[in-house]
Design goal:
The protein is an alpha/beta fold. It has 16 helices and 13 strands. About 45% of the residues lie in helices and about 20% in strands. The radius of gyration is 40 Å and the shape is rod-shaped. It starts with 6 loop residues before the first helix and ends in an 11-residue tail after the last strand.
């Protein structure tokens, strides 16, 4: 699937991942900034020399061109091997020729007779010594080579007055590091968003899966709402989900609701159990059917002892449906266990006997919540053909977008009656949904 992000997505990504972006940016900024203190410091010294062209009051255009060429010639001579070798001989510290050439620069202003000599060294004293030696040597060599005395040193460089620190510029390192840190952190979250996307928001779920979000459940301790107070935030959220489902159920005259997910650990059993409880609290005669014959958890959730259940009835071990229905501590709520683990769960759930079980339950209950295995196996696809609605649960912490899309496509291929999505374990919803009590 090709995924594209528009400007709104990019801005939303910054808001959503601002903590990661901020921390990574800060970390790289500090590393880059403090690294500047480990870089050897360099100082720059400068001095100016004056080159006299002519003493005439009127200068022709030809003389101007000649003077400009003379300036370029002097700039070249100043960094020539002859001059630099003599500078090297004059200094106590000898340099390699390329090293010395990299330490000095000569600058000239347009239409000016001033040449500025710059020299970099590890200390202000050495930089001053180097720039002054170069100026004096150049002045002497012009007298020797060209028999001219048109080079005058305006003033020799003085430590502190004509020197400054040029490398490293700590503030610049911090700024550059901050920019690099932001780009690296944003690129990281962008790649994660594009190729390792987690379904962690209603906007993302609706846009990618093409299904309405029926509810968003905050990250909790996995408690059943029957153990919480009636005004608890979690209870209120499941009331909202119940209201949304009742609206859909009334339009479809539905009774059976299948709950599934893409992978284990998404929280479908937890959602199924709490949906059963919230419907029962609304005086709806409800039954929770644990049809996850491979990895059942319903008995532990409701703390019920009997193992007989779906497999017992479908395999013909218990012909009376009342034998497999267990009462719970929640008024109006019954429970049917998955039963003993069978060798052929897919065949049992696709059998006519299981369809008959659901038909008999419809005559006794108003709401039937069916917890099925994740869509890693074919069991759920068979059950989805005989229910009134399918609810898809995603985990806001771990559900991969590509895997979720693939699971929805599987359900669509068998024309499952998809109702919507439940987002479980959302960390960003608890504050916005806090109940006012």
């Amino acid at each position: 699937m090709n995924r594209t992000l528009d400007i709104r997505d990019l801005i939303y990504l910054i808001k959503k991942k601002k903590k990661i972006i901020l921390l990574v940016t800060l970390y790289i900024t500090l590393i880059g900034g403090f690294a500047s203190f480990a870089i050897p410091q360099k100082f720059e010294a400068k001095t100016d020399i004056l080159v006299n062209f002519t003493t005439a009051n009127v200068v022709s255009s030809g003389e101007i061109d000649a003077n400009l060429r003379l300036i370029e010639t002097y700039k070249y001579l100043m960094t020539s091997n002859r001059i630099l070798n003599k500078v090297n001989d004059s200094l106590k510290e000898t340099y390699e020729r390329e090293e010395l050439n990299g330490k000095v620069k000569v600058q000239s202003n347009v239409n000016s007779q001033i040449l500025t000599i710059l020299a970099e060294e590890r200390t202000p004293e050495k930089a001053t010594q180097l720039v002054n030696t170069l100026a004096i040597t150049f002045q002497d060599e012009i007298k020797t080579l060209m028999n001219l005395e048109n080079v005058h040193i305006l003033s020799q460089a003085i430590v502190g007055q004509d020197t400054k620190s040029v490398k490293p510029i700590t503030a610049l390192y911090f700024i550059i590091s901050a920019i690099v840190g932001f780009l690296v952190s944003y690129l990281f979250v962008l790649i994660q968003e594009m190729f390792f996307t987690i379904v962690d928001s209603p906007e993302k779920a609706e846009k990618a899966l093409g299904l309405p979000v029926i509810g968003v459940i905050p990250y909790g301790e996995g408690e059943l709402i029957s153990e919480l107070t009636s005004h608890d935030v979690m209870t209120e959220i499941f009331r909202s989900i119940r209201a949304n489902l009742l609206y859909v159920f009334s339009k479809k005259h539905a009774k059976t609701l299948l709950v599934t997910s893409a992978e284990p650990g998404d929280g479908k059993s937890y959602v199924s159990a709490n949906l059963s409880i919230i419907f029962a609290l609304d005086q709806k005669k409800t039954v929770y059917v644990d049809a996850d014959l491979r990895r059942a958890t319903g008995r532990k959730l409701f703390q019920l002892p009997k193992r007989i259940g779906v497999t017992s009835y479908v395999a013909g071990l218990n012909n009376d449906i009342q034998e497999i229905i267990q009462s719970t501590e929640v008024p109006n709520l019954s429970f049917i266990s998955s039963g003993p683990v069978p060798p052929n769960p897919t065949e049992l759930l696709s059998s006519a006997r299981f369809a008959q079980l659901l038909e008999e339950l419809k005559s006794q209950f108003e709401v039937i919540i069916i917890n099925t295995p994740p869509l890693l196996v074919a069991d759920t696809l068979h059950v989805s053909a005989i229910v009134d609605g399918c609810l898809f649960v995603v985990n806001a912490e771990s559900s991969k977008l590509e895997r979720s899309i693939h699971s929805i496509e599987q359900l669509k291929q068998v024309q499952a009656p998809l109702i919507g999505t439940i987002i479980n374990k959302s960390k960003g919803i608890i504050h916005s949904n806090s109940y006012y009590y």
